[in-house]
Structure formats: structure tokens, C-alpha cells
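Good morning C.,

I know you're traveling, so I'll keep this short. The sequence:
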Amino acid sequence: MSNSTAAAVLTTTDLPEAIRAVRTLLEISDGCPEVDLEAEITSPEVLARVLDVLPDLEWWSMAGPEHGSSEAGDDPADRLPVRVSNWSRPLDRAEPFIAALGSEPGALRWDLDGWPEVPEAELDPVTQKYAYLTLSVNSRDLCQDEPSEDHTVHVHVRSESETARIGWLADRIGGRFTGRTELSAL
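The C-alpha cells, ready to paste straight into the viewer:
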């Protein structure tokens, strides 16, 4: 299994600022056909809002799939807390999903077609395999293990040694690379 390095380039309590940063990075990328969505939901109200956005939601009980899952046909409201995920969703589902989460932690990952060549910064193009963008909502990490009141934008690159690209992307959104990275399975 391959990994990419997810570098934190912006952490903010201002969710609209984080969303603007993501939009800017999406415009810089070589295109983005889809987004992956995931969250841990503990509230019936949040679950109802998320189901309005994603009626075909895949989920499983946080106690384990044997305690309830969408695959088994169970009702997620009876199995809270639940972990939800939906892969390869249309881009227009991202912001409604963020709004539905409220204060619950979640993550959105955009699978990009690539990061572009930037000759003036001596950056070669990056292929789709290593070009991702993640927004951790109400969390600082990719897996929502660090719930917080802020939101973190992560850019994915081949390795942590690509600090020039990380810094260049961070500069585009008014962020900065703090050195905080995580490995992310591809």
C-alpha cells in the first residue's frame, strides 16, 4: 500500500476561511472529479441533517459493524454513535455535508487530477497518485482523533521532503507549513 504525506497548511476557527482556502487550492489543482466524505456522528440531529444531504449514506456502529451497519439494513439512529463514509461523491455534496456536520468532527478528501508544474518555483507537476486535499472539520487530524473547535486544511504530496510545494501551496491560501504532517493511505 502506498502513502502520501498530508501537510497541515492552515488551521483556523473560521470555517468559511477554511472553505475559501479549499476552493483556492481546487482552482490551482489540475482538476478534481470527486470528493470523499467521512465523520463520526453522535447526535440524532446531525445524523438527520447528514442523511438529508446523503440519503444513501454508508455507516457502521462505532462499537463495530456487528452492532449495526448500513450493509445490514439497520437504522443508524438506533445505533449512535456511528461512523459514516461516502466515497466518490459529486463535488456539490461537499459544502452541504460540512454544514450538516455542525460541531461534529469530519473530513473531506478531494482526489485531484494532479498538482501543476510551477516553473518559477522550480516545481515539477505531481501526478494524481499523490495529489489530494483534505479538510478536517472540527478536528486537526485526518481521522478525527483530535477533535477541536478549529479546522485544518491538509495538502497531500509524495513525501515530507517536498517542502517547496507545500510552502508554495500554503502561500496561495495565506497559510503556512508548520511542519505538522501525517501519513495518509492512498
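Safe travels,
E.
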